Amino acid sequence: MRPALFNPLPVVRADLRRNRLLALVTVLLVAVSLATGIAVISQERALRQGSARAADDFDLLVGAPGSPTQLVLTAVYLRQQALPLLDADILAQASNAPGAKYAAPIAFGDNWQGYPIVGTIAVFSSRGGTLTPTEGRLFARRGEAVVGAAVKLPVGAILTPQHGLHHDKEDAHHPDPSHASMHYTVVGRLPARHTIWDRAILVPVEDVWAVHGLPDGHAAGPTAHLGPPWDASRLPGVPAIAIKPDSISAAYRLRAQFRTPRSIALFPAEVLNELYLTLGNVRDLMAVLALATQVLVVAAVLMALLVGFLARARQFAVLRAIGASRGYVFCVVWVEVTVLIAAGAALGLLLGVAASAGLSAWLTAQTGFAMPVDVGSAEAALLGGLVLAGGIIAALPAWLAFRRSIAEGLSA
What we know:
The protein is of the alpha+beta class.
């Protein structure tokens, strides 16, 4: 029997089977505490990555004086609220500005069954030629539309816009007469961008202006022309302009050019950085709370295990009496505690990633842009730190079992 006493695993397995409830509670407590920290860290990173990717299509935004944050939320993330309109001549200036590949008006106000209809120019639909429709083509005439990948309309479908930002069942029964006469034919579908723009219906901005009783930006009379050059005398105001610079230096020059008393110009990344700073502060606070929770949970687990091991002092004394060394008893206790904490950490990693994935799916449905969930170095450090701390903490009950004499244990 003595050779078996060199291997602590049979005793550890027997102890865990005999104390299933204590082992299960220990593992779950450690798992929940770690899962909280992992979910906070991975979700904050997913939000950063997803929101930054959504802004990739917007190098420079120009809007009327007001809130930069609201301009970005409305133009980039289609969180549509009423924006003050830019003076009409600013669109004409931006379209002719040196260093601008294109200056696309972004006009809102209508929807089809909850999908926002956005008036713009064809070159913006393809993001300057970088996007090729997966079906059909870009719009080239009035009354045509290109839909995002998530819009449930086939190429060739005909739709009638509803006024306002959200679809209401009453609109179908009592349509606005000015909109009932307007119809769009879907001529193309864009590839998935994993942003809210996958749910957008893009149409010629001239149609959006016309359906709201505004001039269409071109000379009076019938014309097949879409987009720039514009007739400045017949241009209405627009909520936002998306400018694509042809170089980094041109981007800064254009931003300076349109930062005037009548307009603001910004890189969306500027606004996102401010939001990220706020998110970072919240993340740091949540990380501290998660760490504090882990410390408290590990302390509670340690106290429970200490009580359990003290109650089993006679068992360890019997092991000593049949030939087990102090080192063997130390090893049994240390391995048992470490296994419980390591198992809780592994389960916590799975729970944390699952919780983050579930939260990302819910936020994606709310915001419209995808949030990739993965495990990075921060999560690995949190996991490794907890396992290391568990190994160190396990030494305390192991040391108490190590120093207790056989006589003390048998009399316990």
